Protoporphyrinogen oxidase (Brochothrix campestris FSL F6-1037), 90 residues
Amino acid sequence: MTNHSALFFEQRFGEEMVNRLIEPLFSGIYAGDLKQMSLRTTYPAMEQLLDTHGSLLKGLRKQQKQFVTTGTKKNDRCIPNFKWWNDTIN
């Protein structure tokens, strides 16, 4: 398993995505250096998705499918908001 969060995200999404999106987000939330943060400590659910589904995106898609299909109406196609994603990942 990857030792720090920056490497985890770089391997999956590329250095540019980390530098422009993920690093500023994590730095704002945790007020620290992404290379000093452990993925297991900051977002253990991401590591669990990877272990369970073999892919972070596959795991998120499965969770999104569950979210969409458990709407209040049969044809309810809700788009998950930030709170839902944050609650899911945490």
Remarks:
- Residues 72-77 have pLDDT under 50 and may be disordered.
- The helical segments are 5-13, 15-30, 39-42, 44-53, 56-69, 82-89.
